[in-house]
Structure formats: C-alpha cells, structure tokens
Amino acid sequence: MCASPLCFIDTSTLYSRLACSPSSLFIWALLFLSEPLLQLTTLPLILIEDLRTKLFLCNNAIVIRHVMPKFLWKLQNRMELGQEKTLIEAGATFDRICAKYISAKREEIRSQGFDHDHSNGESEDLLTSHIKLDTSKYELLKPNDDKFLRDTILTFIAAGRDTISTALTWFFGLLLKHPYVEAKIHQEINTNLPKSRSSQERPWSAIDRKAYLNKLVYLHGALCEAMRLYPPVPFQRKSPIKSDVLPSGHKVDANSIIIIPIYVLGRMRSVWGDDTLEFKPERWISETGGLRHEPSFKFLAFNSGPRTCPGKHLAMTSMKAIIVEILQHYDVKLIEGQKIEPKPRLVLQMNHGLRVTLTKKYSS
Ligand code: HEM
Q1: GO:BP terms for this protein (predicted)?
Q2: What is the spatial distance between Cα 5 and Cα 8, in angstroms, rounded to a whole number?
Q3: What is the per-residue pLDDT for 323?
Q4: What is the reported pTM?
Q5: CATH code of residue 82
Q6: Which atom of ligand 1 lies at the shortest distance from residue 38's CA?
Q7: Which of 84, 169, 269, 326 has the greatest number of CB atoms lying within 10 Å of its CB?
C-alpha cells in the first residue's frame, strides 16, 4: 500500500548530499570493514555542508581552467578575480576544515595508542590508516605532513562525491523511463534479498550484505549501462611526457593535450552495436545469467590501465546499496514535463537536475 507522495525532490542534490554525508559513509563503513583503506573519513555534518557548497563551485571553476588560456587564469588567480577567486576561497575553507579534522584525528590516535588493535572487527578509517602509514615501506608518502593528508582527503572526497551522485541521478532518470527494467530489478531484489529482519534477529553483517548485493547481477548491469550512456567523468585529458606514436599511428608531441571523449566512445555503433543508444541492461548479462565481462578499455567509465579508478568496487557496491534501500522503501516517479539533458562539465551532471516524487511504501 502506498501513501500520498512524501515529497518532490531534485535527486542530483539529494545524492550529492548523501554521497558526502556521514550516513552514507556509515553505509560504506558497514560494507567495507574488510577494505579499510577505501573507507572515507567521517567529517562532522556542519563542515560537510560548507564543503559541499564550495566543492560545487570548484567544479565550474576547474572546467573554466580547461578552456581559458593559461596566462589569463593565472593572471586572474594572482589578482584574485572571477572563478579563481572562488577557487582561492574554496581552498581556504577546505584547509580550515581539514586542519581541524587532522589535528583531532592525530589527538584521537595519540589517546588510543598508535598500535590500537582492530582485530575485533572495529574498522579503521582512511585518514587513520594514512597517519599510521609505515614510512619505511612507503617512502614517498608523508603521514607527518598535514598537507599530504589534506590532499589525500581532497582526492577521495572529490573523486567519490560527484561521480556517485551523478551516476545515481542518471541511473534513476533512465530507470524511471523503462518500467520493464524497474520491474526486473524489483524482482531480482525480492528474490535475492531477505525481507527486513525483526529487532530480535542479529543485524546483517557487512559480509552478509556485500554477498546479497553481489547477487544483484541485473542491477549491476543496469548501473553499468547507465554509466555507459552517461559516464560521470565524460572526458579525460592526458598529455605524453615525451613524444610518442599512438597504436593508431598518430604522432603525438610531448606535452600535447589529448582529450579522450568517454561519452562519445560509450555511444559508438562500431563499439556497442546498432542498438547503442538504447538503455539495455541485458547487454551486460551473459547467456548463463552471469555478468558479461566488458574490458575496461571498452567500458571506460572508471578509466583503464594503471590509473583505473581505485574506488570502482566501492562505488558499485555503495550505489547498489543506496538503490536497493530506495527501491525497497519508496515508490519513485518521474515528474512529467521536465527536460532531461546533460550539462557538459568535468562531471556530467543533469542540466536541470532530476525531479521525482517519493512515496513511502508501507508493508500491509
Ligand atoms: C560512479 C563512481 C565513480 C566513477 C565513475 C569514477 C571514475 C573515475 C575515473 C574515470 C577516474 C580517472 C580520472 C583520470 O585519470 O582522468 C577516477 C580516478 C580516481 N577515482 Fe574514481 N570514480 C568513481 C568513484 C570513486 C570513489 C567512490 C572513490 C574513492 C572513494 C574514487 C577514487 C578515485 C581516485 C583516488 C582516483 C585517482 C586515481 C589516480 O589518479 O590514479 N572514485 N575515477
């Protein structure tokens, strides 16, 4: 039975809050007890909100650096003008937040003892594990340097936040226009996931939960399909350090700029077939019902080669966990009459966001 719509929301904002909020970090922490290095640090909520706004502004400013002549943005930077002023202010906010957080974390580690034992299953967050790095093994890493720790936090927050929120927004945009895909995902969830447990029962362990999510092959395929059509990182920019010849025979000079259009590659008929523009999760399912492996140099959403996204598995599992939670507890409907189109940015957000109604489901 469904109640009347609970709210109307712009999901792009919601997911970006979620991907940055302690609650999603909590979900991630639950899921990844076995992969402590991939856990994000948990920042206090009020700092997260400030940071979220500043990171959003940076996204625009960084794109402008790609299209504006270098001397011009460098001049703007020196004079603290325009988008560069935004970047400088965002940098200062970020430094302030990180400085507080790093010193609090160092204090916490000091009070618990450097060799605090985690063998009881208690997890260690990313920042803690970086502060405790064994410098005799990792000579280039500098755990005593706050700047190194700040840059590490920035890399993980920037790389994991907008990408996940964008992928989820496009996923729901496509899903809600393809009711048969939605029905198949519901069926897969109902078949594979046990109903919610009573309060007497032992809560799901991270391992149980990860194992359930691994069974959701069709959902996995649908997510890959959404990212094939709308890759959160729509292009990549690379430069060779010395002149070279590409496998295609093209010569490239040292420092020349090569743009790899991932959005375009995901839509090429010669790569994906005549139905390339259709949203077909079946593309990712093998004859035996398992996942069809597509090489990373063909499906480039997470990049390929030595710089492949290290958060790939974390991202896939956390996105599946979020989708299952939403679909199990809410009826999600697209608000009619909205224009859904991409906004060409560093991260491929929707131009006007995605407006949906959420109706809470009640079990009868
Ligand atoms: C849907 C989600 C995600 C997508 C589509 C994605 C995609 C990518 C892509 C395309 C790159 C390569 C960028 C380049 O070299 O130009 C990358 C790098 C990276 N990603 Fe992700 N990512 C996602 C989620 C995450 C998450 C959740 C984390 C960590 C918590 C993460 C951490 C990183 C890091 C640290 C790098 C830099 C790796 C390097 O420079 O070698 N990503 N990601």
Answers
A1: lipid metabolic process
A2: 8
A3: 92
A4: 0.80
A5: 1.10.630.10
A6: 30
A7: 169
